[in-house]
Write a structure and sequence with these properties.
608 residues; alpha/beta; Alkaline Phosphatase, subunit A; 2 domains; 4-stranded antiparallel beta sheet; 15% strand; globular
Length: 608
């Protein structure tokens, strides 16, 4: 039966067709509008020195792909980590809050989680930018290092797991990478365990001698069975500690996929290629949905490693090889953004959790720590070398290419920046210390909203930075500084890392004052004779520090001794505990495709 060919019928058909086309066009526009919400690709290196990148002045380590972010986007020259150790720094980065506010800063010497079976971690009542984006319909992934806790009361409760902090997908290390994780790479506990044994054995011997003497003098009657029990208990305790440390790699060097352990201990073989493949696969799976990809590199924390395609290729030994392999990985992920036509609507950010660990020297005497450029000190200190980190942002069409910003900014700033861009509701029941970066990045503001930045050594306020309003000056005060050893060095080589209180630091009265614009290397402390405003500057900073301290409230200490200590019932275990929790469910995922991709890396390339 034929259609209606009358003029009215033709008009009706044309109207239906036009309406259909308009509806299709509206759906397309609306669909594009939803899909055009920005993606976020975040890169965080571990212990990378600001002087290790070409865009920050290095001429001997090849980092063309990371450098391309500076060429095509914005470089922050005074970008500051909120802490100079991994655990508190990462807590601050994710929450936009000083770690002391969430209990993620220690009052003891140890300022990070050392065991997978500890009970401390980022509290679930804290809000991360991943959680905010997930609530906005984003797909979220963490690939790489977590180091913010795992279990609370039982093995497998995963109360501190990334899934409880807004990440839909996790592939990586719940703890961290230590020397002990790689065979023949040294032992970070060696000096401490030797000292403990040297201390414990004489104490036990002295206690036994004293008891025997008292018994001999008839001043105290002690059954020989009790003496034997005391001796046996002490011997068992010392043996248990030594045995545990000898099995550290098996128990703590873990690779997880979501809530499943897939390698225990994890293998360094093709680890960077596996992480890179997981990152690019996540983007491919989420083409039709806005996403957050947080690639938290294992590089360049010790134990250093590099796959065979990069070994021996740099001018700086294994450290340089490791940096160049990380640069390859960044290049692969950036290339995937281009291939998937996502670059124009993706904000890319690159940073490090703190400065280079200058005390890292291999057992063979090779330097395994990075370079902080002209800046004094390194990881675990609040000298500029410990907290001034790379800050690179790229968003084609939104951020100007080749821009340099020299005023102070913080890695806590990413939280409010993402929240504002995603139009997410900021938490109203807590202080957010970060500040939205977009006005500064878009030339809508001359300087960051940060007037003061507070620098903590664990839970102790050790320094303050002041950037007065409508001024180019940047002042920094140190209330105390670590005692470097040997004197004249840039670190605490006798302890492997600097500590934050007691005999390990020197308090300054008056505090040390530096002009970071004229003296970024912090070599010339100012005096009333060299700076007429010396007293006024110290008074302003002291007043700001007092105001800041009054904003702090009591919170549970996640890094207390009770939360740090190894608890057998919290031990993550793949397979039977009687087999010391060993498994490999990766099945040798070092595929030929991953290896061939790495082999195509061109270190002479200058753009991603």
């Amino acid at each position: 039966m034929g259609g209606d060919e009358s003029p009215d019928g033709e008009r009706r058909n044309m109207n239906i067709l036009a309406a259909f086309l308009l509806l299709h066009l509206a759906q397309t526009i609306l669909g594009q509008g939803a899909d055009q919400r920005p993606n976020y690709v975040i890169f965080m290196a571990d212990d990378l020195g600001i002087g290790d990148l070409g865009c920050y002045g290095n001429t001997t380590i090849r980092t063309p792909h990371i450098d391309s972010l500076a060429h095509d986007g914005v470089l922050l020259t005074q970008h500051i980590a909120a802490a100079s150790l991994c655990t508190p720094s990462r807590a601050a980065f994710l929450t936009g809050r000083y770690p002391v506010r969430s209990g993620m800063a220690s009052f003891n010497k140890i300022g990070v989680f050392l065991f997978a079976a500890g009970s401390g971690g980022l509290p679930t009542n804290e809000t991360t930018f991943a959680k905010l984006l997930k609530e906005q319909g984003y797909s979220t992934a963490l690939i790489g290092k977590w180091h913010l806790g795992l279990n609370c009361e039982a093995s497998g409760d995963h109360c501190h797991h990334p899934a409880n902090h807004g990440f839909d997908y996790f592939y990586g290390l719940p703890l961290t990478n230590l020397r002990n994780c790689k065979p023949d790479s040294g032992d970070v506990f060696a000096a401490g365990s030797r000292k403990a044994v040297r201390t414990a054995v004489p104490l036990v011997a002295l206690a036994l001698f004293t008891l025997l003497l008292l018994d001999h003098l008839a001043l105290l009657t002690i059954p020989w069975r009790a003496l034997g029990f005391v001796f046996l208990a002490a011997a068992l305790l010392i043996s248990a500690v030594v045995l545990f440390l000898s099995k550290f790699r098996q128990l703590n060097c873990i690779l997880m996929q979501n809530d499943t352990i897939i390698q225990q201990p994890f293998s360094f073989d093709s680890l960077t290629q596996r992480l890179t493949h997981e990152a690019t696969s996540f983007m491919e799976r989420n083409l039709g949905r806005p996403f957050l990809l947080f690639t938290s590199y294992i590089h360049v924390h010790t134990a250093l490693y590099a796959s065979r395609e990069f070994l021996g290729k740099s001018k700086h030994g294994l450290y340089g090889d490791s940096v160049e392999e990380m640069d390859w990985s960044v290049g692969e992920i950036l290339a995937s953004l281009e291939r998937l036509n996502l670059s124009q609507r993706t904000l890319v950010y690159f940073t490090s959790d703190q400065g280079a660990h200058v005390e890292e020297i291999s057992d063979e005497g090779e330097m395994h720590g990075g370079w902080n450029g002209i800046h004094k000190g390194g990881k675990a200190t609040n000298w500029e070398g410990g907290i001034r980190v790379p800050g690179l942002l790229r968003w084609p069409g939104v951020l100007a290419a080749g821009k340099r910003i020299h005023g102070p900014t913080s890695n806590m700033d990413l939280f409010p920046t993402i929240a504002k861009l995603a139009e997410a509701t900021m938490p109203s029941d807590r202080i957010i210390d970060g500040r939205d970066l977009m006005p500064l990045l878009r030339d809508e503001a001359l300087q960051s909203e940060h007037e003061f930045l507070f620098h903590y050594c664990n839970s102790y306020l050790s320094a303050v930075r002041w950037h007065p309003r409508n001024s180019s000056a940047v002042w920094k005060v140190h209330f105390f500084t670590p005692n470097f050893y040997p004197q004249g060095s840039q670190g605490c080589y006798d302890k492997h890392v600097c500590f934050c209180h007691g005999s390990d630091v020197h308090h300054h009265s008056p505090p040390l004052l530096y002009d970071l614009v004229g003296d970024p290397a912090e070599t010339r402390p100012l005096t009333p004779a060299s700076e007429p405003r010396h007293r006024l500057i110290l008074e302003a900073i002291s007043s700001a520090a007092g105001d800041h301290r009054r904003t702090l409230g009591p919170v549970p200490n996640q890094l207390s001794a009770g939360n740090l200590v190894w608890k057998p019932w919290l031990q993550p275990c793949c397979g039977s505990p009687w087999q010391l929790c060993h498994c490999d469910r990766e099945g040798g995922k070092s595929t030929q495709r991953d290896r061939s991709a790495a082999s195509e890396y061109s270190p002479t390339q200058t753009r991603a």
